[in-house]
Specification:
alpha+beta, Ribosomal Protein S5, domain 2, four-stranded mixed beta sheet, globular
Length: 197
């Protein structure tokens, strides 16, 4: 069972996340931020992960702490569920269209955290989320998931479509990268022989 469950509590947020990498898109997501719930639903539906997210944050301040901490804990549960990463495909990518928008995400579950996000936003907010937080979300996830994540919007006019295409591409790329490769059996997909150090 490639599953994980993590609870994290700080003075700013209280977060519980449960993940099954080999799921069927079952999800219960509540962060108090409607658009973030919508984006995380894309992660489950298009990545076929079972995901429960229960987050309570200091939204009376703003959405920053909740979005950042959800991304950090989400990365942690992916890292924990992957274990020693034996037998995984390891790398995956996806182009995702959304009307006039085209986004691309490439992921390497290499054990080395790094993120490059290329997107130009036309408005300061989508819902009550500052558009500057979308790159920060992916960067935070990459750190704790210990993955290399490159995300870019090739072209777009609408910021809602831009965010949605990025999250769909991220979900599909993660689905590919986390799958078990039957040809590898128990082998680590690395010339170093490890993805955890």
């Amino acid at each position: 069972m490639r599953t994980a469950e993590i609870s994290r509590q700080t003075n700013e947020t209280q977060i519980e996340i449960k993940l099954d990498l080999d799921g069927t898109a079952k999800h219960e997501i509540s962060t108090g931020i409607g658009f973030l719930d919508h984006m995380l639903t894309h992660l489950t539906v298009h990545g076929l992960f079972d995901l429960t997210v229960d987050a309570h944050g200091d939204l009376e301040v703003d959405t920053h702490h909740t979005i950042e901490d959800v991304a950090l804990v989400l990365g942690q549960v992916f890292d924990q569920a992957l274990g020693d990463r034996k037998g995984i495909v390891r790398m995956g990518d996806c182009f995702a269209p959304m009307d006039e928008t085209l986004a691309h995400v490439a992921i390497d579950l290499s054990g080395r955290p790094y993120a490059v996000i290329q997107a130009e936003w036309n408005t300061p907010y989508i819902g009550n989320i500052p558009t500057s937080l979308f790159p920060h979300f992916f960067e935070s996830f990459a750190v704790t998931a210990r993955c290399n994540l490159h995300a870019r919007v090739l072209y777009s006019r609408d910021d809602h479509h831009q965010a949605e295409a990025l999250f769909k591409a991220w979900a599909r790329a993660l689905d590919i990268a986390t799958q078990m490769d039957p040809r590898r059996a128990e082998a680590i997909p690395s010339t170093k022989g490890t993805l955890t150090k």
